[in-house]
Amino acid sequence: MREYRVLVASQGHAELYALAAAAAPLRQLAALDNPAGRQRSRDLGTGKPGRVMNRTGGVRHALEQAHGLREEADRKFARDVAATLTDVAGDPRRVGLVLVAAPRLLALYRQLLPRAVAGQVVATVPANLAKAPTEVLRRRVRTALRGAGLGLAAGR
């Protein structure tokens, strides 16, 4: 019998569920919260970027970061979620992973997951269902698994 781990993530919250059978309810394994995901960029840090003066032309240039504070907070949270997912992923022969998140976050998780764990991803749902009822979530996961040719047996 194959069991699935379902990661449902948004920028501010992530939950990891286990799904053993089509008729079985989603069983929560872990929940992670990102308080920075609900804050504005200006609330995460203060001060403007530094400036430098070009000696020859008298032109000032701003020294901006490659990524803003909000993007860095989201990336740190995604790394924490990927680490948790790695810890609870389980045996690759028996456990498949389903990722449910907005398309931008799906790409970030695929980038941050270790190769062994990324190989366990069997289906994705590119939608933000973090606040959806569990029954809606379960139906969408079942549809994604059927679409990937991995339907869950109704009796198991």
Give a verbal description of the structure.
The structure is a single chain. The protein has helices at residues 41-44, 69-88, 103-112, 115-118, 134-147, and strands at residues 3-9, 13-19, 27-33, 51-53, 60-62, 95-101, 121-126. The protein contains 5 helices and 7 strands; from the N terminus they run E-E-E-H-E-E-H-E-H-H-E-H. Helix 2 (69-88) crosses helix 3 (103-112). A hairpin with a 7-residue loop joins strand 2 and strand 3. The chain has 156 residues and is of the alpha/beta class. The radius of gyration is 20 Å and the shape is elongated. Helix content is 33%, strand content 26%. Strands 3-2-1-6-7 form a 5-stranded mixed sheet, sandwiched between helices. The chain has a two-stranded antiparallel ribbon with strand order 4-5.
List keywords for this structure.
7 strands; alpha/beta; 5-stranded mixed sheet; 33% helix; two-stranded antiparallel ribbon; 156 residues
Radius of gyration: 20 Å
Query: DSSP strand (E) fraction?
Result: 25-35%
Number of helices: 5
State the low-pLDDT regions, or none.
none
Q: What pattern of helices and strands is seen along the backbone? A: EEEHEEHEHHEH
- Summed over residues and divided by their number, the pLDDT gives a mean of 78
Spatial strand arrangement across the major sheet: 3-2-1-6-7
The helical percent reads 25-40%
> By helix and strand content, what is the structural category?
alpha/beta
How many strands, what sense, and barrel or not for the largest sheet?
5 strands, mixed
| General form | elongated
